[in-house]
Amino acid sequence: MEGLELIKIIVFGALAYLVGSIPTAVIVSKGFFGIDIREHGSGNAGATNTFRVLGKKYGVIVMIIDIIKGFTAANFAFFIGDYFYGEERFVNLQLLFGLLAVIGHVFPIYVNFKGGKGVATLFGMILAVNLPAAAVCVIFFLLILFTTRFVSLSSMMAAVMLPISILFIFHNHEKWLIVFGICIALMVILTHRKNIVRLFGGNESKANILKKHRRKNQD
User: Fold this and answer.
1) pLDDT tens digits, 51-105
2) Residues 6 or more apart from 14 whose CB is under 8 A from it?
3) C-beta separation of 148 from 154 below 8 A
4) Helix ranges, the chain (H)
5) Which of 102, 108, 128, 211 makes the best surface tag, with the fewest CB within 10 Å?
6) What is the pTM of this model?
7) 178 within 8 A of 165, measured Cβ to Cβ
8) Measuring CA to CA, which residue among 106, 84, 86, 109 is closest to residue 14?
């Protein structure tokens, strides 16, 4: 690796973290409602809690912007060297920058390192790295969401479908992509531990997908 390439990787890696750190849910909640989303609902600054506390309209806004964060960061790989989309080296750079954006979302420097769970940002990263697998994840997410109205359950099931689709649907055997898919599925499940407890206890809040939402302040 040449010195200039290493410098580029460090610079764009830092930029990926800063992009991921943009606290979309906090900005939206404070800008439109005068509250900090982290003081309501589950306490997370992500799309799931925004759906729960602020409703569908603002949940969708936060989700889309968080997806764009991951997609943008992963595609910083285009600025590093003469690599082609889909090449192993290029994919590895996408994974690196995308993961740094996710770390930024979970531990955002702008708001005292207290962010969300990173699912939407992860999805944006997957869109950039493997569009077909991302499409499968979207289908499962939407099917489960409109069937159960549980954003948390939909997120976990979509994450589990990532390594399954990479290996068994698209037969992609690239080592780091498979490792990434498995790690993402495990990470999403681990970060949703409280949601899993609420799901089994019948206390998990449902997203107001088709109904007009009235903001609630309770967990």
Assistant:
1) 888 988 999 999 999 999 999 999 999 999 777 777 888 988 999 999 999 999 9
2) none
3) yes
4) 3-20, 24-33, 47-54, 56-74, 88-106, 119-129, 131-148, 151-164, 175-191, 193-201
5) 211
6) 0.81
7) no
8) 109
CB count within 10 Å of CB 86 equals 11
Residues 39 and 92 sit within 8 Å (Cβ to Cβ): no
Whether 69 and 23 have beta carbons less than 8 Å apart is answered as: no
Q: What is the pLDDT of residues 9-68, one digit of tens each?
A: 999 999 999 999 999 999 999 999 999 999 998 888 988 889 888 988 999 999 999 999
User: CA-to-CA distance for 17 and 79, rounded, in angstroms?
Assistant: 16
Residue 27's pLDDT is 96
Could you tell me the end-to-end alpha-carbon distance of the chain, in angstroms, rounded to an integer?
50
Q: Is 209 helix (H, G, I), strand (E, B) or coil?
A: coil
Q: Using CB atoms within 10 A of its CB, is residue 4 exposed (0-12), middle (13-18) or buried (19+)?
A: exposed
Angle, helices 3-20/88-106, rounded to nearest 10 degrees: 40
What are the extents of the domains in the chain?
Answer: 3-201
Distance CA 188, CA 14 (A): 23
Query: Does residue 136 surpass a pLDDT of 90?
Result: yes
Asked if residue 144 lies in contact with residue 136, where contact means CB atoms within 8 angstroms, the answer is no
Q: Given the structure tokens 């750079």, which residue do they identify?
A: 93
Greatest Cα-to-Cα distance within the chain, rounded to the nearest angstrom: 56
Contact 120, 106 (CB under 8 A): no
